[in-house]
Amino acid sequence: MRHQRCESKPMSKIGWSLKYDKCTDCGTTDMPHIGHGLCRHCYHRQRYIKLSANRERTDKGDIIRQITREYLIREYKEKGKSLQDIANDVKCTRQYMHSLMKSFGVKRRSRSEARSLALSAGKLGKRTA
To answer: Are residues 99 and 115 both part of a single domain?
Structure first.
């Protein structure tokens, strides 16, 4: 089966992009359009800023030194905090907390225990039949 060649408009007739005449951030037409109305430079700059804002946490080496087996047991078992609550306190992910618990040998709650704790803490709404 032969592929038909689609005819595209020459770049001069399309403009800088289909929806924009220039970069919405810096106003240039010299750099190629990447997406969201931004040139390559502005797109990557805004993406870096957005990702950097999500990385407001300490280095993992600091987290490991900060979290001990005793700390996990105190927060998880005695205070009844969830893995997400502990992760938010030390600024890491819930998945990373889970792997630390496995490496420290801290036993996890059953689903029913976790659910009843979440209900008592007001994290979940009660089911209606």
So the answer is: yes
Same structural domain, 85 and 36:
no
What domain range includes position 116?
60-120
Which two structure tokens, joined as six digits, stand for 108?
């996890």
- Assess if residue 10 is contained within a domain: no
- Cβ-contact 34, 17 below 8 angstroms: no
Model confidence pLDDT, tens digit, residues 30-88: 999 998 899 999 998 888 777 666 555 445 555 556 788 999 999 999 999 999 999 88
CA distance 59 to 71: 18
CA distance 81 to 63: 18
DSSP H helices in the chain: 11-14, 40-54, 60-66, 69-72, 83-90, 94-104, 111-120
Task: Check: pTM over 0.85? Answer yes or no.
Answer: no
* Distance from C-alpha of 119 to C-alpha of 42, rounded to nearest angstrom: 45
For tokens 């993992």, what's the residue?
60
**Rounded distance between C-alpha atoms, residue 82 and residue 79, angstroms:** 9
Q: What CA–CA distance (Å, rounded) separates 13 from 103?
A: 61
